[in-house]
Specification:
single chain; mainly alpha
Amino acid sequence: MKKYKITERYLDKCMEIITEHCFSNPQQAFFGEELQKFCSDSKNIYALHYLASMDELRLVLTDESTIPTVVYLEKKGILHSYVRREKRCSAVKGFIVGVVATIFTG
């Protein structure tokens, strides 16, 4: 599998698509034509495997293929957007505290 340079923003976009499909299906899975369409881009397949290695997704592969037939969200994957938001809020708070500390000590 070709190695791609994947940004956090791209992974977030992929997780949004996967989460949307998993929560809209009664089986709580991403599969079928939508998954095949998503996997038509090899960068998306690489992103799926990358997210699976971080325990955010569980992939069901058949016949030693790199293209999954079913994608399930793990507990860590369900919390992906919450963790992302908390990291950003923490960074903003840290920046503000740094500016205030600089103003008062300077």
